[in-house]
Amino acid sequence: MRAKPLLTTVLAALVAVPAVLLTGAGTASAADPITLTSGFYVNPGSSPAAWVAAHPGDSRAAAINTNIAARPIARWFGTGSTGDQVASYVGAANSHDLLPVLVAYNIPGRDACGGQSAGGAGSVAAYKAWISTFAAAVADRPAIVVIEPDALGDFDCMTSARIADRLDMLGYATRMFQQKAPNTWAYLDAGNAGWTAPDSMAANLNAAGVHNVRGFAVNVSNYYSTSASESYAGAVNSALASRGGSAHFVVDTSRNGNGSNGVWCNPAGRKLGTPPQSGGGADALLWVKTPGNSDGQCGIAPTVPAGTFSPDLATRLINGT
């Protein structure tokens, strides 16, 4: 697998903190969550924030707090996450007129070919119940949701029957957000510039119901530069257009400041990218992956499991080393 393994959900107490203001707005067919809010919500329970709180005397804490923990970072919801937790998180953001970014990451056979972040719901029926509850918990409050990172690029090791099940589940997910979360911009994950060919990804997105939602996300948990990611998204959109219409997209810029060196699992020499903002050639540039969370037991963090925060990884991203 040429994509990245992904982080685990951090379930923590929610409090309000200042958010980075948004810098523009797109236009949604129904409602635009960016113009309905006054900035992105900063997750006070993120893994870097929790580490900083637990290590106030560490010489790295101030830099990690300023450069990472204080930024708006998506919160991931997966196995064990409940509708009440989703509702609480979205409600905390909404109570301060701020826009939360969430990731739904619970599809059966998650990270099927990479294996570093394996897991997910136990069956198709269980997943459909879970994602329906997720969308209903967001309800009519403004939100951005990235749907199932890796799910549409991770077909190489799957049977045709499993692929058909996955497309069915993703199509169901898009319909749930369309029906139950009218003020949400939801994006199906579309891999990254170094993984699936644009025409193949467009076919997968089309089969998964991308036109039921706002669009697709690129570079989630990977390192490709913003320009490379936007070029890839443009190629995907050109291929989508030949199938009946293009879509909007967002880019994960959390760790793409130095671009990609072709390694997806904890490579050296990477750097934090542009902080979250709306616009920038996409609907938004987002920090979907939590900077400092390991991709797996590999690269420069061979003993750090996927999703575990490492202050060494975080510091390297701050310094670009």
Protein architecture, described:
- The protein has a single domain, classed as 1, 4-beta cellobiohydrolase (TIM Barrel).
- Helix content is 31%, strand content 10%.
- The chain has 8 helices and 8 strands.
- The longest helix has 21 residues, at 160-180.
- The radius of gyration is 18 Å and the shape is globular.
- The model is unreliable at 1-28 (pLDDT under 50).
- One of its GO terms (molecular function) is hydrolase activity, hydrolyzing O-glycosyl compounds.
Q: Strands across the major sheet, in which order? A: 1-2-3-4-5-6-8-7
What string, H for helix and E for strand, traces the elements in order? Answer: HHEHEHEHEHEHEEEH
Q: Using DSSP, what is the number of strands?
A: 8
As for the number of domains, it is: 1
List keywords for this structure.
8 strands; disordered N terminus; carbohydrate metabolism; hydrolase; 8 helices; 10% strand; 31% helix; TIM Barrel; alpha/beta; eight-stranded mixed sheet; globular; 321 residues
Give a short overview:
The protein has one domain (47-319): TIM Barrel, CATH 3.20.20. The chain contains 8 helices and 8 strands, in the order ααβαβαβαβαβαβββα. The protein has helices at 47-54, 61-69, 83-94, 124-138, 160-180, 198-207, 226-241, 311-319, and strands at 75-77, 101-104, 143-147, 184-189, 215-218, 248-252, 277-278, 284-286.
